[in-house]
Amino acid sequence: MSNLDELYLEVIIDHNKNPRNKGELNDFTHEAKGDNPLCGDQISIKLIMKDDKITDVKFTGSGCAISTASASVLTETIKGKSRSEIEKLFGRFQNLVTGTGKEGNLGKLEIFEGVNKYPARVKCATLSWHALIAAIEGKKEASTE
Ligand code: FES
């Protein structure tokens, strides 16, 4: 394992142990739940969108270390972003975790690059993202299928 892989793993472990923005959000404008049909884990996202920008976001639910860390980093990453910026970012994140495209400049999201070696874990890394996209599209539920 390279030093960079070790560093990324440490950050994932930290976000799993101390997830950022985990909990309930009052007075939200959008919410949706994501299910991973492979394991039954669920993550719900609640957010406040004002003038096409996310001003606050929180998540609840439980999943594996990767899904929890991914939801935590997601909430840190998307604050202040517009719907179209988030949709583009999700496309780039999917490329990163599936290894289908060379993606750089993704900031902290790059800690999940190693997931592309484990196809079964891609749904873990994208679970909260599917819930987020469903929420901003006004849907209540998302599936990673
Ligand atoms: Fe269920 Fe990862 S094993 S979300």
CATH class: Alpha Beta
Please bin the fraction of helical residues.
40-55%
Euclidean distance between termini CA atoms? 31 Å
What is the 3D form? Answer: globular
Provide the domain count: 1
* Strands ordered across the widest β-sheet: 3-2-1-4
Average pLDDT level:
94
CATH fold-level name: Sufe protein. Chain: A
- Bound small-molecule species: FE2/S2 (inorganic) cluster
Q: From the 3D coordinates, which CATH architecture would you assign?
A: Alpha-Beta Complex
Briefly note the structural class of the backbone: alpha+beta
Order of helices and strands: HEEEHHHE
Short synopsis of the structure:
By secondary structure, the protein is α+β, with helices and mostly antiparallel strands. The chain is 41% helix and 19% strand. It has one domain: Sufe protein. Chain: A.
Descriptive overview:
The chain has 145 residues and is an alpha+beta fold. The chain has a single domain (3-136), classed as Sufe protein. Chain: A. Helices cover 41% and strands 19% of the residues. The chain has 4 helices and 4 strands; from the N terminus they run H-E-E-E-H-H-H-E. The protein has helices at 3-17, 65-78, 83-98, 122-136; strands spanning 30-35, 42-50, 53-62, 141-143. A 4-stranded mixed β-sheet has the order 3-2-1-4. The N and C termini lie far apart (31 Å). The mean pLDDT is 94. Residues 36, 39, 41, 63-64, 66-67, 124, 127 line the site of FE2/S2 (inorganic) cluster.
Features:
145 residues, alpha+beta, Sufe protein. Chain: A, four-stranded mixed sheet, 4 helices, globular, binds FE2/S2 (inorganic) cluster
